[in-house]
Design brief:
Layout lengths: L3 H8 L10 E8 L5 E7 L3 E8 L2 E8 L7 E2 H7 L9 H19 L3 H25 L5 H9 L1 H24 L1
Antiparallel strand pairs: 1-2, 2-3, 3-4, 4-5
């Protein structure tokens, strides 16, 4: 894998011509899984495309706050659109299809977008908390009821006998 900048210019040349993005910076580290990053800027927003361990991610930032990056998938979820996959064609396609809406979301509708992102984080936090509160599955209960049955007692006896025989064999064979 070469630098993401070269791949981007080869696979999605429209990005630096049609919407007017300019490459501001890029990096490439072949020693670390070929990780690479390209930062672009247009008159409407900032775009950062990252390849990490072979997976592609895109982040966007409003010009009003260029240090505040958001995952493109999260922005698209807030806009009720499907998030992209983690390969360049998917990310580039999602950008091309949704760029006007993303520009609108990070420009005039920035406050609505930030509210939507905060709401999505709260929803995900509640869902995670609900999973944690349910706790880990308790395997003791089904195991206890199995070992109380006649079949369970027989299986437990056979397994115990095999374990004892294996231990005795190991002791006597040395």
């Amino acid at each position: 894998m070469g630098p993401l900048k070269d791949e981007l210019q080869r696979e999605a040349p429209w990005l630096t011509t049609d919407p007017g993005f300019r490459i501001i910076s890029f990096s490439y580290d072949p020693a670390i899984f070929g990780d690479s990053m390209v930062v672009l800027r247009s008159d409407a927003l900032c775009l950062r495309i990252i390849r990490e361990r072979g997976r592609i991610f895109a982040e966007v930032a409003p010009l009003a706050d260029p240090q505040n990056w958001w995952d493109l998938g999260m922005i698209l979820e807030v806009l009720h659109r499907p998030p992209p996959g983690h390969h360049l064609q998917s990310v580039a396609g999602a950008l091309r299809t949704n760029l006007p809406a993303v520009i609108e979301a990070l420009g005039p509708n920035l406050s609505v977008t930030t509210d939507g992102i905060a709401r999505r984080f709260r929803e995900k936090e509640r869902a995670t908390l609900a999973l944690v509160q349910r706790g880990k599955p308790n395997l003791r209960r089904p195991l206890r009821s199995f070992t109380r049955s006649q079949t369970g007692r027989l299986v437990a006896f056979i397994l115990t006998a095999l374990l004892v025989l294996a231990i005795v064999w190991m002791i006597l064979s040395h």
